[in-house]
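Section 3.1: Structural characterization of target chains.
Under the original work plan, the team committed to producing a structural model for every single-chain target entering the pipeline before any wet-lab resources were allocated. The record below documents one such target. The sequence was received from the expression subgroup and is listed exactly as submitted; it comprises 192 residues.
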Amino acid sequence: WRVKLHRRWAVALELHHADNPMISEAIGEHYLRAGENGKAYRYLAQTALRLWQSSMTQEAWDLSERALLLTESASWDLSETAFARARICLLRVRAYVSYNRGLWEQSESILASLHAVANGLGERSLAAVSALDRSITLKRLGREEVGWNMIGEIIEDARARGDRRTVIEGFRRQATFEWERGNLDSCEHIAS
């Protein structure tokens, strides 16, 4: 009877408060206790992202850890697209918390996954940003040339698509690279 009760609570909360970040974690918890891991994963991942966006980093990380345990079963319970969208939320949290903690290898790996999933969903802007962030991570790992080349490829692709925002962001990353190398003239040239 508890499983049914948790499912009813989850459905009721979902109907009336699905967009409320204060309630979405509870919806995920009720779905988890009702045995609906796919829906639980989706709500926990979305809530983790909202917490991270609100600068509640540790809370976001902790919730992402709980959602991570549901990944395999959620991949079976949700449609491919729904799972990928929820996974993007989880990957964003884990990539950027790792990045901010200086866990470069972990961040680089997660950013590569985020890039692939975002590309698969046609989320070009998110894919580009994750690749640009990955290039900085590669630099931190001592693979500066690989990171630099990655930025160049992203700029070329963005130019071909007419995506000025990504081109500008790519140039900003190149200027940062040159600044950190101590090449101020090159930094100024890129920035102008």
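The mean pLDDT is 88.
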